[in-house]
Every structure is written in structure tokens, then in C-alpha cells.
Amino acid sequence: MSAAKPLPAVDYLKLPEGGEPYLEGYKCKACGAVFLGERTVCSKCGARDALAPQKLGTKGKLYAYSIVHRSFPGVEVPYISAIVDLEGGGTLKGNLINIEADPAKLKFDMPVEVVFKDAGRKDREGNSYMAYFFEPRRA
Amino acid sequence: MGDVYVVGIDMTKFQKAGTGPAVDVLGAKAALGALDDCGLKIQDMQALYCGNLYQASGMVGQRILQQIGQTGIPVVNVANACATGATAFREGWAAVKAGLYDTVLAVGVEKMSAGLLGGGGSGGISKEGLFGSSTMPAVFAEAGMEHSRKYGTTFEQFAKVSVKNHHHSTLNPKAMYQIETPLDMVMGAEMIAYPNTKLMCSVNVDGSAAAVLMSEKKVKELGLGKRAVKVRASVMTSDPWQERDLVMPDVNTCTRLAAKQAYEMAGIGADDIDLIELHDCFATAEILHYENLGICKDGEAGKMIDTGAVALGGKVPVNVSGGLLSKGHPLGATGIANIFEVVTHLRGEAGKRQVEGARFGLTHVIGLGSACGIHILEKVA
Ligand SMILES: [Zn+2]
């Protein structure tokens, strides 16, 4: 029972049977805006039924960040809360890992990669979850 | 349509979160203060607009009337995140402007708890610290770092905002804190979310503020013109679509939109403004709003804080009250408390922190999610 597949930690993270995890965006055919997760109306231009799912890219650049030293009880600190612009459209927020949480080490626009790993947290029923993170990437 | 005036206004001394009286008693205190300020009674009020966030479903406005006089007037309770107080004030303004009433009362009140705001989540597992942080200090840190990436704004420049606002509040007996915080103290305080240290985060307090708004006709009839302050602009915006919206709340675009509309409505420019009370929920946020409100060019906000242009005695003093950083931030009351500060200066009654010769003042709040409220007030007497 408990060897069950992990669940996606956010609804726009897709775990296809026998395939690699990926993030799903919805792109507006009318104006090109990219959203995280499913929707039917574009909040940029108001177009209806012009949104189609697309796989989001896994390469991106660091747009902005904060180094979080105080968080909720049980959350390990410090960690880097990062805003990343993806190649091909879309912006994500997530933890930037495998780099020192030091402003001197973090450069705006540094290349990063989206990686998928176990969230390290379980829900009350004991289910495990798949999450995404960012890692530095060689340009 | 005639102009609308603030004829009575008051705020409580902001106090440590959780130490204030019950929310209705706290709101009643400022309401009575505002009535006394213009020598009117609750029986003179034709409507009440009440702003409160944490008990938004609790009929706070009616409970305030149960404290100070149940006259049967209409009560509108509003909630609009940290723009709640400004929204209540603006609803009152709109009703008077439209000719529906001559005299109304607007109250903002909040009882707070200590600690981090934001970071809520539902179902499954907690997302905080897994997909970055949704705590307010981190969200506004990221907004500040966006400014850093564009213009090279430094940790030290952000910290100087806190030094300034804490200094200002040493001159404000109604502020939560009256302590100087030198730069090394601000920068050396506990890091909450880089670049915001603990002294660069607004302080959660209990407090209330209230204003009596009146039509021009009634002001003349009652002879209240001497201390009346004219509302030259009242504007509210929500956040227009931005490409990073989904992960990065945008406090800039809605502020720029509101500022543009407010200057147009008032028929003046940013250069005419003599003092500003803006939404410094975090030190990083204040820097952004110098540019958003047009008091300097894009990219010059760092220089504004470095040169002291925004300090008391400078070209356009910002947050002379101490701001949310040091006066305190009782969410639903903040939007009327900053109007209290500006009105006090325009009346020439601000004592040691008086901005000399002030004619125009601007107030600004942001409710994340987002709502931006801007008011421009003018000394007339
Ligand atoms: Zn569209």
C-alpha cells in the first residue's frame, strides 16, 4: 500500500505513467500569456477558450530572490526563495538548492535548471509528494 | 459636484499586538476622538463606513455603534487587505461626493497577533519553504531584489529607510516605538528574509483611526472651514496583469496607475506634494514607491534615501509619522491613520515633526492581492 506513487505537490506538476515529471502551463493563443495550471479564460486579454496546455521548459534564469531565515515552525532555514523565468515562457517560484544561501554567491540571471525530487514531507495519510526545485546550471 | 472635506480625525496610540481592548471598544475610541475633533455627535453622522480585516464577517461597524450610539444609520463593513482603511474612507468620500449624504464617519480598526503574516496553504502538504516562501517579509524582499537587479540598490540603502522612519517616530507620541535605530543596528538585527532584517519589517500593533467626512455645503453651514482639509483626489486600483503575477505579487503597477489617476484628479503633479505617508510594510517596499509615486525618476530611489530628500527637513518627507515600520501597522486602521498624519501636518498641528508650510499631502496603501488606495489632501484655511 505505502509503496504507492508519490502525488504531485502542486497541480501543475504532472507525473505521467512511465514518463518523466514535467510542469504544465496554459498558453493563450490570442496574446501569448503563459499561466501555471489549467484555466479557461485569459486574465491578460480576456480571451475565452483560447488556452492550450503546454509543457514548460526546464531551463531558466534567476530573476529575483530572498534568503529566508525565519519561516514557519519545522521549516529548515536558511533557504533561497527564488523567482525564475523559464526559457519558452512562464515564471516559477521555488527553492534554489545546491548553492550557498549567500547574496555574494547569487547572481541575477544566473542559469538554473528545474529538477524534480521528493518533497521530503508527507501528508497526514502518509502519502509522499513530488516537488520541483531549482539548481544552478552551467550556461 | 462640491468638494469633500475631512473635518474631524483621530487615531489611537498604537500599542503592542494583542494588548488593546476588544475591537469594537478600540474602534469606538478613535470614532469618538474624530467626533470630538470637529465638535459633532454620533447623531450628526448619516452613515458609517467601517474597515476591519480579521473580523470581516463580525459586523464590527454595528458593534462600534453599539458602543457609541445606535442611531439606525446605514453601516457598510469593508475588507480589502491592507487597503481596508483607505477603502472605508473612500467609500465615505464617494457617498458624500455623490450627494447621498453631507456627513459620514469612516473608521478603521484592527486587533493583531504577533508573528509572521502570510504563508497560508490548504490541503496536502504545507508549501511554505518547499516552493520558496509566501511569508510577507520574503515576498517584499523579492520585490526589493527586483529593484536591486534593475538599479543596483543595496542592502544598506534599504536599511536606511528603517533608520529614517524609526527616527521620525521618536517625534510621534502616537507611534508604537520612540527609539533611534542606527544603521549598524538595523543591518545587524536578526535577518528575517534577506534583505529585510527584523527592524525592516513593519510592526504588528493594535490600533484604530477614524475620520468625519463632510460636503462643502455643510462645512460652510456649520462654519467648520478653519480646520477642514480638502480631499483633492481619492483613487483605488487593482493589479493589472503582469507576466510574473502568479508567483510575484506586483505592488508597482497598481501604484503607478493609482498615482497617475490621483495627480490627474487633483490637477497637480508629484512636484507639488509636500509630504507623503506611503505603505512601508517592509523597508524594501518604501524604496519602490518613491519611483512609483513619481517623486523621483526610475532608478533614483536609492539616491533619494542617500541624500535625505525623503527625511524630515528634506525635499519631500516620507513617513514622518514613523510609517508602518515604526508607528505600526494595524492592517484595517492603517489607511485612515496615514490620512490622520497628513491632515495633522496640513493643519499645522504636528508639533516637533511638523513639515513646515505643507499644502499638499499624499497617502498611499497597498493591500496585497492587490488593492492600491491613494488620497491627495490639501490645506485650505
Ligand atoms: Zn490572452
Name a few traits of the molecule.
heterodimer, A: 139 residues, mainly beta, six-stranded mixed β-sheet, 46% strand, B: 381 residues, alpha+beta, Peroxisomal Thiolase, Chain A, domain 1, 2 domains, two-stranded antiparallel sheet, 12 helices, globular, binds zinc ion
Can you describe what's shown?
The complex is a heterodimer of chains A (139) and B (381). Chain A has 139 residues and is mostly beta strands. Chain A has one domain. Helix content of chain A is 0%, strand content 46%. A 6-stranded mixed sheet of chain A has the order 1-10-9-6-7-8, with no helix packed on it. In chain A, strands 2, 3, 4 and 5 form a 4-stranded antiparallel sheet that branches. In chain A, strand 9 and strand 10 form a beta hairpin. The radius of gyration of chain A is 17 Å and the shape is globular. The relative contact order of chain A is 0.21. The model of chain A has no long low-confidence stretch (mean pLDDT 94). Chain B has 381 residues and is an alpha+beta fold. Chain B has 2 domains: 138 residues, Thiolase/Chalcone synthase (Peroxisomal Thiolase, Chain A, domain 1, 3-Layer(aba) Sandwich); 208 residues, Thiolase/Chalcone synthase (Peroxisomal Thiolase, Chain A, domain 1, 3-Layer(aba) Sandwich). Helix content of chain B is 35%, strand content 19%. Chain B starts with a strand and ends with a strand. The mean pLDDT of chain B is 96. The chains are: A mainly beta (139), B alpha+beta (381). At the A-B interface, strand 4, strand 6, strand 7, strand 8 and strand 9 of A face helix 4 and strand 6 of B. Strand 6 of chain A pairs antiparallel with strand 6 of chain B, so a sheet runs across the interface. The structure holds zinc ion. The site of zinc ion (ZN) has 8 residues of chain A, from loops.
